[in-house]
Write a structure and sequence with these properties.
The chain is mainly alpha-helical. 64% of the residues lie in helices and 0% in strands. It contains five helices and no strands. The model has no long low-confidence stretch (mean pLDDT 84).
């Protein structure tokens, strides 16, 4: 797999997980990679659901009572919803630099939400592509403006 040629000067695009810099020109089997991410995240979410089902059966076999069952179910549902929202907004605004250890624990417990966010986003674009594309285009525009101001021989200009 070859990476797309990047300009020798100027800003370089940031790589995305699973995509490298193929998101810039949608080359290098970009569509196949998106399909792979969608399939992989949905398969992993399905596997996670099976693991949670086995865990629930284990709680039922242990006869822990309805309160504990409801507490476990509610915890995973709430953490999955929070992880979905956090992941989905992260595709647009970037990762939260102030993510505290409790937030990381919530994301770990809500792995289903994260996987489903990856699946849904990969149906439209590479997860995080929109955010990186906006940043890259802004950096390119700034670079072009800077280079345009420096063109020409300053010695040929008249006195300021």
């Amino acid at each position: 797999m070859s990476e797309p040629p990047t300009p020798v000067t100027g800003p370089r695009p940031a790589p995305l997980r699973f995509f490298g810099t193929t998101w810039v020109r949608h080359d290098g089997h970009y569509a196949l990679r998106r399909a792979g991410v969608a399939t992989g995240s949905l398969t992993a979410a399905f596997g996670g659901c099976l693991v949670l089902r086995f865990a629930h059966q284990g709680l039922a076999a242990g006869q822990v009572g309805p309160y504990v069952n409801l507490l476990v179910l509610g915890t995973f549902a709430l953490c999955s919803a929070l992880a979905f929202r956090r992941t989905w907004t992260g595709f647009r605004g970037g990762p939260d630099p102030g993510a505290t250890p409790p937030a990381r624990a919530t994301m770990a417990l809500g792995f289903l939400g994260t996987l489903l966010a990856y699946f849904l986003r990969s149906l439209a674009e590479a997860p995080g592509e929109k955010r990186l594309r906006a940043r890259y285009e802004e950096e390119r525009a700034q670079y072009v403006r800077r280079v345009a101001r420096r063109t020409g021989n300053p010695a040929k200009r008249g006195p300021g």
